[in-house]
């Protein structure tokens, strides 16, 4: 039968292995979330036309295309570097918060390098707070975006019944849905990072920790005894 110390060591080994496996999965999904944020930010498919809209087209955070009423050809405008080309103040604000969310998640990936220099538990907690902030910014961006649906450009595509938080004849497209899904993704990753951060501080089971404390105490007593012996020898030499 295994002793308590041997069982604790086996438990500790399995515990560390499982924690590392979960940490690897968390890292992979964090990178996937960053890719999703990039797609959500740059793709102009947040809202779009339907069979009942006066004009064809689609809108993103900053880039949009509306069909020419005569030729039907799409005319595209809008740039992230030119705020004046964005048709609504709400779209500008939404772009800002989604952009901040993207920067935060990229910052989380940059923080992965801290695992080589800092305590793993602290790094996980830093990343968790950054992911939570990224989710918050994405929520704000998704909530503010419909406030710009009353702009003239959107009404030209979706019809005059379009208003704030009322899409008229247009439909929600996949990029907007993906942004909403990414919020849940970020919250889940943040929660997992907090759990991993707290687990890193408790990787050793109680029996193993007690044994380590005993070893440390014995080592301390040996060091103290050695110091006392050296001190006594030096006193005898001086006398």
UniProtKB/TrEMBL annotation:
Signal peptide: none annotated. The keyword Transmembrane helix applies. It is a multi-pass membrane protein. The keyword Transmembrane helix applies. GO terms for biological process: detection of mechanical stimulus involved in sensory perception; sensory perception of sound. Keywords: Membrane, Transmembrane, Transmembrane helix. The chain crosses the membrane at residues 21-46, 94-117, 126-146, 174-196. It is found in: Membrane. One of its GO terms (cellular component) is plasma membrane. This is Tetraspan membrane of hair cell stereocilia-like protein.
């Amino acid at each position: 039968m295994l002793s308590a110390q041997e069982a604790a060591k086996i438990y500790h080994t399995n515990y560390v292995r499982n924690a590392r496996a979960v940490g690897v999965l968390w890292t992979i999904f964090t990178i996937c979330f960053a890719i999703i944020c990039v797609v959500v930010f740059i793709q102009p498919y947040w809202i779009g036309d339907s069979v009942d809209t006066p004009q064809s087209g689609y809108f993103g955070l900053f880039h949009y295309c509306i069909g020419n009423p005569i030729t039907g050809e799409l005319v595209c405008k809008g740039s992230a570097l030119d705020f004046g080309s964005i048709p609504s103040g709400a779209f500008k604000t939404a772009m800002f918060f989604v952009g901040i969310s993207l920067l935060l998640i990229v910052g989380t990936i940059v923080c992965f390098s801290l695992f080589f220099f800092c305590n793993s538990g602290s790094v996980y907690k830093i990343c968790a707070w950054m992911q939570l902030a990224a989710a918050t910014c994405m929520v704000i961006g998704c909530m503010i975006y419909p406030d710009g649906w009353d702009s003239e450009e959107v009404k030209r595509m979706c019809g005059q019944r379009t208003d704030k938080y009322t899409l008229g004849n247009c439909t929600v497209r996949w990029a907007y849905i993906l942004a909403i899904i990414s919020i849940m993704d970020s919250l889940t990753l943040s929660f997992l990072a907090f759990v991993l951060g707290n687990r890193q501080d408790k990787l050793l089971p109680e029996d193993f920790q007690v044994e380590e404390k005993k070893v440390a105490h014995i080592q301390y007593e040996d060091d103290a005894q050695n110091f006392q012996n050296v001190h006594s020898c030096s006193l005898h030499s001086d006398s």
